[in-house]
Amino acid sequence: MKEQNLANHGRIDPWFHFVIVGILFLNVIVCAIHLYRQPFHFNEWLLILSVGLLILAFKVRLYSLKVQDRVITLEERIRCATLLPDALKPRALALSPDQLIGLRFASDAEFPALVEKTLNENLNRKQIKQAVQNWRPDNRRV
Q: How would you label 35-57 residue by residue, b for 16+ Cβ within 10 Å and e otherwise?
């Protein structure tokens, strides 16, 4: 596997992004054309159903990403309790889930300094990722 960094850490699942979404999107188009050519109530229902399936696919994807973000947030809170000096631990409770998700890429060595910088400058997820010097890959992300 290629070394992960800021430029390539995003993940595309070809089966979801291209195959499933592609088929469901084409199905919406085919149903819309079919309804246009033959405007019957059943064809209206097929179009509604195909749009619903497309929405369902995206919602299922979003739900899994939200659960994953909750797990990452929990992991990073445990990491804060383990790696941060005692003086910084109470302040780390103010980190938002978005900030914690960005911090997951920081190596253990740079984690305390980056947490302090994040708290002092109120960095967002993107800014935190850009500040990471020694990238800790997250190869299990969906």
A: beeeeeeebeebbeebeeebeeb
How would residue 2 be classed by pLDDT, with cut points 50, 70 and 90? low
Spell out a b/e string for 70-107, using b for 16 or more CB atoms within 10 Å of the CB, else e: eebbeebeebbeebbeeeeeeebeebeeebbbbbbbbe
pLDDT in tens, 56-103: 999 999 999 999 999 999 999 999 999 999 999 999 999 999 999 999
- Phi, psi (rounded to 5 degrees) for 74: -65, -45
Residue 135, beta-bridge partner list: 106
Nearest to 102 by CA among 73, 79, 82, 81: 73
What is the domain partition of the chain in residue ranges?
Answer: 14-131
90, amino acid identity:
P
